[in-house]
Amino acid sequence: IASAFSSSDASVGLMLGSSFGLLFTLVFYGLRRAMSFKQMMECIPEGFKAMVPAIMILTFAWSLKAMTDSLGSTEFVEAFVKTYAENFAFFLPAIVFLIGCFLAFATGTSWGTFTILLPMAIFPLEDPLGIICISACMAGAVCGDHCSPISDTTIMASAGAQCDHVNHVATQLPYAISCAVISFLSYVAAGLLVHFGAPGILALPIGIVMMLVFLTFLKAKGDKVN
Predict the structure, then answer these.
(1) Tell me: the pLDDT tens digits for 19-48?
(2) Burial 13-31 (b: 16+ CB within 10 A, else e)
């Protein structure tokens, strides 16, 4: 299962998923007699025309990802982390989180970021920082992918909601960045806790408290404006 996911191709998956989704929809509407066969066939080209902007953005995003891969982004990040991060071991989870965010944002892929960072972030499982660094890598990659305007998930979300793509990215950034800042501080706390011999899991309630404080501040600010 792990090999199947690691060897997956997003473009092929999108094509197969769309094809089976279209086939299921035709059968579903046909059995319910909600639409005639002619009406369903007339809807297909209209739907394709509506998806042309999303298809173009995806094509450009995949082209940009191929270009960054050919420029050696994997080797550059690996050399950077090994050169500078080893001297700040207790800040390593926060550093891995930040690198994951920026790398996934620039390339538009969380799985590609996993491939680059996980081999560098994996410690022996006996090391308390091991699990924390793996968590930081995955959280940063998902956060950057969620914020990236060239991510396939972001593009399909705006296309499915029929909203402007740039507006979709701009409106979700404040929420994602707020959570990212709190997560970064939590990973700093986790690294410091492990450095001083305390359990890293204590960073989780610290992060929850910071999130509650931030939400309370936003509510109070909103009530003051209203």
Answers:
(1) 898 899 889 988 888 888 888 888 888 877
(2) eeeeeeeeeeeeebeebee
